[in-house]
Structure formats: C-alpha cells, structure tokens
Amino acid sequence: MPISWDPQSQQFHLRTDSVSYVMQILDNGWLGHLHFGPPLAEDAAYTYLGPRDFLGFSNRQREPIPLECPTAGSGDFRVPALVVEQADGSTVLDLRYKSHRVTPGKPALTGLPSTYVEVGGEAETLEITLVDAVCGLEVELRYTIYRSRPLVVRGARIVNRGQTPLIVRAAMSASLDLPDADWTLLTLNGDWARERQIDRRAVRPGRQAVASNRGVSSPQHNPFIALARPSTTEDRGEVFGFSLVYSGNFLAEVEVESFGSTRIRTGINPEGFAWFLDPGAFFDTPEAVLVYSAAGLDEMSQAYHELFRTRLARGTWRDRPRPILINNWEGTYFDFDEKRLLEMASSAKELGIELFVLDDGWFGRRDDDTTSLGDWFVDKRKLPGGLESLAGKIEAMGLRFGLWIEPEMVNRASRLYEAHPEWAVGIPTRPRTEIRNQYVLDMARPEVVDYLFGVLSGILGSAPISYVKWDMNRYITEPFTPTLPAWRQGEFMHRYVMGVYALYDRLTKAFPGILFESCSSGGARFDPGILAYAPQGWTSDNTDAIDRLRIQFGTTLAYPLSSMGAHVSASPNHQTGRTTPFNTRALVAFFGDFGYELDPTRFTPEERAQVKDQVAFYGHWRELFQFGRFHRLVSPFEGDGNDAAWMVVAPDGRAAIVGFYRIQSRTNAGPKRIRLRGLDPAARYKVSVWPATSTPEPAPSLPLGGDVLMAQGVVIEGNRMNMEMGDFHARLYVLEAQ
Ligand code: GLA
Hints:
The protein is of the alpha+beta class and about 750 residues long.
C-alpha cells in the first residue's frame, strides 16, 4: 500500500519507489512534518528526524515544528499556510489531530480542476482532519500519492464547524519545510509575448515570491516554481517542483529562516482574498502538485508532463493526435470575408493542412478591437451565409473548421453592454479601467455563466465546428461584484475563476467532440488548471521562431508538448520584425501542436513546396512530437544563449527526433557535440538529417548505438567552418532504431 499508518509511532508514510512523504502526530496533537524526498524504508519510525522544539518560549516546552499546516501568531513567525479571522477578530489557531482516513483513488474536487485516476488502484488518498477547539474550525488536509509517479498532490478543505462566522484570509494548497537552504529557485517569468522565461537564483534569507493579482495566472509569473540544488542539472541532482492547479491569482513563496531551513508555500494569493464561512460552510483550496526528483530537472518535468497530459487533461482529445491547423489571425487580422477565407482554406487544403480556424472578427461589427465583444452573432457583411455556410464549405473541401471566441468579455460598444451594463466588472462609484477597449464580464454571477452557455451552445451547435480557441484578452481591474455584500468582496476573484471553470465544464461536456484550445493574449493563462478543460493552449502571441525557442523551452519545465500550440507565421515576423528562414520557423513549431498562422495564398512556389514537406513530415511524426518523452538538451537561457537543442523520444525508444537551433552563425567554431537522452542504449539508430538541405554534412552513414549517442552525442559541425551560412539555422536529426 502506498499509504501506511503506524499507531505505535503515530506516523503516516506515503511511499512509492521514488518518493516518501512522512508525517507524525506529535504528543500535543499537532501534525508534524518529517520528510519529503527520496524513498525511506517502509517500516521504520522517523521520529528522530523530527520536528525541533521552539526556542525561547518559557511556558511552551516540547512544542515542535515544522508542521504540515503552520499558522501564525503563536510562535512560528514564518509565512503561514492558513489564516482565519474569528468572531473576535483574532487569527490565532491551534490545529490538533482529530481523525484521518485513507481511500483508494482520488476524490474529485467540486467546481475546481483536479488530477484524477482511471482505476482506483493507481493512487491512494489520505485525508487528515485537524481541529481548533476554540473556534470550531476544521481543516482537512488531503494527500494523494500515485503508485508510479514521483509526486504528491495536496489540497485542503476548510470547514466551519463552530457557531459563529469565520473569514478565511489565507488558505494555502500546500506548505512544506525543507531542513536546509542550499537551494536555487527556478521561476517562469515574462510578460506578453515573452512568457515563461526561466530564471534561476540562489535562495537567500527572507522571502522570495512570484504571484499574480491580475485575475489570470498571468504571463508575468507562472504558478510553478522549483527548488533545485545549486549543482542540479537536467540529468543530475535534487529538485522539488511546486505547481498549482489554478488559473487565477496565485502565490508561490519561499522563505529562508534564521536557522537556515526553507519553507515553501503555494496557493491562492492572499492579497485581496477573503472567504466568508458561515457555520457549516466549507472552502476548498485548489490542489498543488509537489514533485521530487533526485535525477535532475528532466525527471521532474517528465513527472509533470505525464501527469498533466494523462491525469489532468481529459476528454476525447486527451489522447487523440491533434490536427495540423491554419489560423487566419496574422494572415488577415479583422479584414476578411467569406471569399478570402475560402481561398485561404482551399490553398491550405492543397498543402495537407487539416483544420481551418477563423479567429477574431466574425461577429457583431468587429472591424477592429473597439467593438462587439459580447455580440456573439455572425457579421453577415463578412459572412453572408453565416458560419453554417462557411464551415459547410470548408468541410466540403475536406478540412475541419474551428472558431475563436472570447466569452468573458464585453466592449462598451456592443448590444450586450447596452442590455446589461451591470454585467461588466467594476465598482459603481468609480470609473472602470478599459484594457484593449474592453471590460470583463462578471463571471461570479451565475446568470452570466448561464447566458454565455446559452449563446455559445447556440453558436457551437449551429455549424460543424470541431475546434474552439477560447481567448481572454485583459486583466481584471476594479474587482467587485454587486451580487456579494461588502464583507464578501474578497471572494470575487476566486468566484470569477470558478465561473470560468463552470462555463468551461458545461461547454466541454455539451460538446465533447470539440477540441478546445485556451488562450489569453497568448500565454497569460497557461496553467495546469485550464489544462483540465482545454488540453492545449496558445503558448504565446509571439510567433517569432527565435523568441519561441526561449518561450517553448521554458514552458516545458512544467508543461507537456501536447499542451503547447506552436505556429509558423510570416516573415518578417509581425511581433519582432525579424526575418528567419522558412524551415527554421517550422522546425521550432514542430515541437508542440503544430500549425500555421498566415495567409497561405501568398506563398511563393518554393514556400508551397516547403510547407507540403513540413506538413507531411509533421503528419508522419505527429504522435512522437505530441506524446513522446521530451528532453531539453541545450538551454538558450545558459551560456551565451546562442544555441538551443531538445528532443522527443517514442515511449518504446525506437524513434527520436532532435531539434538543434543556432541563432547567430559562428565562423570557425569547431566541432560541437550534443549528448542525447532517453534512447535505448542497446539499440542501433539510423540517423538522418531533416530537411536534407539543412546541412552540408552528410548524415552519419552507419547506424549509431544509443549508448554512444547518449555518451558522446551527435556531432553538429564536424570539421566544417559553418553549419550553414547565415543566422537562424535549424536542423532536425531523425533517429530510427534498426
Ligand atoms: C489575442 C490572441 C491572438 C488573437 C487575438 C485576436 O491577442 O492571443 O492569438 O486571437 O487576440 O484579437
């Protein structure tokens, strides 16, 4: 059994072959934390590891820390996991063990995305209930351990079993104390068009945090952090990952205390948050996924990739190969009509593309971004026959049809706003901030969610639509909902996210055949929570191949390739003005859910030939790219950042594709080798270069052993002065076991 309880030592031990998580009920009833990390022997007692006494409290001897759910105001001065305001205004808690139970599998969370099991035996869940005798608060801490994954999924339910209302001021999904501070902190930071750039720095005394207060998880910071030893590399050394399955305001914080231990906490951002609990009411935190790897960042990422792809994403499209799509956004922006779209679709079809996506601009009178959000009816000026005619004609060509929507928004210039100005988020006595000329709809109101479900189901049912791109193009300001009393306004941001999840849940259930792709000005809501509804997301509005190297590389720290939309766009690139070779753009976009975002009618004959080859190549290897094991090889965040490389390997190790990218050409650089990972050491691989024209070097003519490819690598330059003249070079190595 992965979860054991020993009444003798009062110890809980969650254990798999790769991790152990050990807790103990201390003499005074507190729940102490003993260990999370490498697996420990199953039947031993680890009391001695244990919590150390508080120092300096004369009347409180033998009260040890660390605890599983630390609270504030009674001696532990570090950041707390739980702050609850009581009837008298005080916030001190004294949480003591009440009961526990172990259940097979994993109970679902209501209204929140969560990881799941397919068969009960995959995982076990431990729920430990702690209680504060003074105010009647109960905390149910939940721990799920999967038999074959190096991780623990945590969360908590806060229940008011007292007689008076309580206000939850902070409720972390997980808090963990590590005994030393010899760690570096990895975070994914950025902004619009430069999402999820890896930052790595030493942890220092005091606190360091990343957070969002924007209503979405945000492109500035991602709800994922890792603590790695300073010497940890991709394939060596310890690392802990902390990922929050949530799409709204989050906090991920690290605190190094004066004795040199490290506390990590992650959960809903307490800033601006308050949740009112009447007697009998409860609050569920989102869940956090804590991964431990003793074998470097790669193994941590594998754990996230596999869990998120197979036990968080759900629905028809979870395991289905994703279509090669073309999206008209950068090809036309708002300027299109049916004729133009059909020309684009027809030329895309000739090239082998499988899905045509109509982006923004098809509804209301939306010729630019100043109007019509909320008016989800077809603009007959552009599409006289409606979506039915357009989608029907596209289907008749043998392509599938997809549609862009931005459900959570309204423009001031719209019929919806005229009819329901009160549905726009804002404080009645203050001006509303407009971002991209739009307001946010109050998703905390059930009637707004109902309305959107009605309108959008009408649209999705009106035509053969097989894909939806669900956008969300602004942050939330003036957070407030008149539907809640003054003392409950701190619930708004979380209720908003719950409303988004409710709408996603209803639409994905009503249209199970539709592939949903999430988007938020590119990657502003690229998080595990949204993956539970949309198995793929638009990684970034920045489609520049060179910028994408960093964006996609950083994203893979926590997210699988199957979750990352990646498109070839026109050159010079619309976001950066950079001119890159056509194939380089494809060779970057292959590592994700591949597609195009341009006007295919403008291709030169040479480009058409290249696209045909690209589509055929990706089509052939699609499952490897989307569902293979992904390894980062050369980081564009390290060294001079001029080179990047990564690879995917088939689950059975029989095939692999390596992508190598050189940003600026190097003259007389000398040979360079890239060691590969994840191959079968006993297999012999035929190595070919794709496209064949990308190298003056012939590929090695003899098959090479997996052992030598992993020990010595592929030789990138041989003795040539240049791989190829010119900047922005890319090439693939295709490895097939003989
Ligand atoms: C956002 C998206 C883009 C595109 C535009 C349309 O910026 O990220 O991909 O859909 O909106 O307005």
